[in-house]
Design goal:
The protein folds into two domains: about 90 residues, Sandwich (Immunoglobulin-like), CATH 2.60.40; about 725 residues, Maltoporin, Chain A (Beta Barrel). Helices cover about 5% and strands about 50% of the residues. The protein contains ten helices and 53 strands. The strands form eleven sheets. The chain has a 22-stranded antiparallel β-barrel. A five-stranded mixed β-sheet has the order 10-15-16-13-14. The protein has a four-stranded antiparallel β-sheet with strand order 3-2-5-6, with no helix packed on it. It is found in: Cell outer membrane. InterPro entries: Beta-barrel_TonB (IPR000531), Beta-barrel_TonB_sf (IPR036942), CarboxyPept-like_regulatory (IPR008969), Plug_dom (IPR012910), Plug_dom_sf (IPR037066), TonB-dep_OMP_SusC/RagA (IPR023996), TonB-dep_OMP_SusC/RagA_CS (IPR023997), TonB-dep_rcpt-like (IPR039426). Belongs to the TonB-dependent receptor family.
Amino acid sequence: MKIKNFFLLGLFFISSILIAQERQVSGTITDSDGLPLIGVNIIIENTSRGTQSDFDGNYSIMANQGEVLVYSFVGFSTVRRTVGTEAVINVQLLPDETLDEVIVVGYGTQSKRKVTDNIASISSEQINNIPVSNMQSSLVGKAAGVQITQINGKVEGGVKMRIRGIASISSSQEPLYVIDGMPLINDDESTTVAPINPLISLNPNDIESIEILKDASSAAIYGARGTNGVVLITTKSGRAGKTKVSVNTSTGWSRATNKLEWLNAEEYIELFVEASTNSYGAEDTWLTEEGGYFDFMANGTDWRNLEVDTDWQDYALVDGAVQDHTVSISGGNDKTLFFISGGYNRTEAIVRGNDLERYSIRTNIDHNVSDKFKVGFNAGASKTQISRIGTDNSFSTPLQAVAQSPLSPAFLDNGIPNNDSTIYYNFLMQEYNGDWDADIFRILLNSYLQYQILPSLSFRTELGYDNNNQTEEYFAGSLTQSASTNGYADANAVQSDKYNISNYFNYNTTFNQDFDLDVVVGMNFEESSRKNQFVAGTGFPSDNLQTVASASEITSGTSTRTMYNFLSYFGRATFSLYDKYLFKGSLRYDGSSRFGADNRYGFFPAASAGWIISEEDFLKDSQTLSLLKLRGSWGETGNAGIGNFASLGLFGGRAYNQRSALAPVQLANPGLKWEKTRQVDIGLDFGFLNNRISGEVDYYIKKTNDLLLNQPIPGTSGFTSITRNVGSLTNRGFEFVLNTRNIMTEDFTWNTNFNLSTLDNEVTGLPGGDIVQGLNIVREGETISSFYIVEYAGVDPANGNALFYRNTLNSDGSRDRSTTANYGEAERVILGSPYPELMAGFTNNLTFMNFDLSFTFQGEWGASLYNSGGKFQSGNARYEDNQTRDQLNRWQNPGDITNVPQARMYQTNGQQDSSRYLEESDFIRLRNLTFGYTLPLSVTERFKVDRLRVYFTGVNLLTFTDYSGYDPESTYDDLGGSNIQRGITFYSAPPAKTFTIGLNIEL
């Protein structure tokens, strides 16, 4: 009995120890953003015991010390944790990057692994928290072969996006933008030639992803408008689960990325007295004598004792500010998903008098009516208010203030801007006694109905609407340049509407588990209309009455209406064999009212193929190679970016002998047809070490034929030009992308993206011969818009004369490299291109514990920039304009070696258009940098906050360049809409260097 009792007692003791070792383990499971994950499976390894996380991501399970908990969830990498002595184990699951990424393509989506095209995909994480007022600028440096440049530092300034070079001369060079399936209005509606970015009304914080369709195979599904590439914008949508409230708020300040050094008052006096002496002799003291020109500039102040030393640049370039606030609510269930957001942005530019204020709201709803029937509605509205300033080529624009003399005070004693003794009109007067406002109200709507006819067959219909209303009101009071008319005012109103209807079937099936087929067939109709009203008047009884209604005389008024449409049919088939042999073909048949009756419709076919070599038996089991895919594509795209009636013979209303009459204004060309671009792309996608190293290499040739060109014709015809299809040009280049996950640990991650691209542009056919506009030329065998100017040869050390290379042709075809001081003896030659030959982007993303850091460098090489204002501001004192400080290094004595000719006032000595003012514009720029800290969940959950992150962001922090002007990217905004004149700067404002502090909150 005793032995039995001792045995039972021992057994009870051992059981007690075992039971004591089993304990309750609990915790919270979140994703990479710190948000709770619902329904995560938690299994004790090698047992059947397990549980799931609840609605708040919490879980609880009984486990023994030493047992392994396995956390798994669809779409995320599996995590294992060994149970120790702790009672709480919190886990963060990261997305499983070995899964197929789904990207948006035209009229559908596709697995990135099976894509046979060249598509650059940018997620919201890559563009969030970059404090820029427009969506395009947040993409800079993120995609190979894509050049994005804001024209200048004005907040509303136009943005140029060039995808794989320039594919047109006179037609549009901008890509097609499509948001949630709706092609966007992308027309500049500015009342002046200084453009307003048409997409300034979009809130970047509402964007989920952006796909850039670069090759013809991907863009050909949009046919007639795919030549310049297609940018697909997908806005955010809700996700099933807990309703999430997100707040992103930031505020910051900005200043110009660069300022130039100008002469101060003492240096100005020295240089211009010398220049006058060189021109008129030392005995002529018209500048310095009492009542002379310096006295006029000084306006009663003592310039001899340097009483006034005005830095006009500091009045033009000021400290700016930026605020950006977005609040969104999203969520849903298995029936309905929703996303609602509201945004506010205010950007005060670094250029005086220029600012922007934008209010936006968006609502996206998706609802499953039944298992087969689904509907959705996307709506966005925004109001943008812009305080505008003059074009680069107007003295009312701030940057031209640098031409004023430092001897002139900026303001009079009564506080009114000094316009009495300045060389040119004082721009401050416009701010004091004028106003120029633009208001843009934009509505974007897109709805769809989708019905699953069969398990493999669905039908979808989409109806989209884009309304862009823009009004501009300008007033110049009685003290401004309009003083002679006692004030001037005008008002301009533009209403643009676009309707888009798409109907298409999608058939998707798998045969014998080895053959996948996806077919899309449909049609599209699009109609665009535009109405414009303009009125102007002069003579105002008071400067407080600033609308045209108060004008004593209406000096001009006009009203126009126009419309055009597209009718298209399209089809695409994608076929996958054994999950490794990939084929795709597409065809679009486009008709447009813009083209001649003989060629109204055009075919745009495309085909591509891919081979996933890594799926072959001889590589499938490789422990090193994760992916090796060879792909190739060919296709045709078109360009319809011309006037609505370019093919028609037009008449316009005219007055003749005080009678109304009709007069011909345009010659007809019924044979006018689509400009077409054929593109071939060969690419290789690769991945190593479970895709820790991945990337792609591409080579493309892109040839445009039947270029749409406003061709000059003899004046004896009664007309100056006619739109015809003439000429061809070719773009070719390499693209290289490398993605690496350098470090991946629980506490530290480091990912890198590097992209590099080359561009070789050549005009390959131009039957009509050279086209010269200003400083640029289009010539067969050369880069489009090459610089065509006289070559500067420096300064004659004997006498200070400016020299030029003759460059006349010798009998053997060579150029005469002798120099001459006679500008008329020198011939113009091609001396550079406005387009870069090499572009690169380098992005790093790092996380350490709760800290995160990301930054992007961007660089361009091979382009040149011509300073058209150089003849005034760096012209060795020919004019009264203040000079850049480098002009002090002028020639003064025989034997001086310098590049600045002798200063001669009012005499030409090297100020002609020449390569003296042409510079290489190579640069590397730290485009953006963000440093953030996320508070631990254990802290934020006390306040019912899922995630709280504070961050600092800088934009355009550093620029490395040898370019001596304001900025290697800023260009002239007053080119009159010319597509030929490029690479010119003229008092163009630099971009802003911006610093912001922000806060992300998710509830």
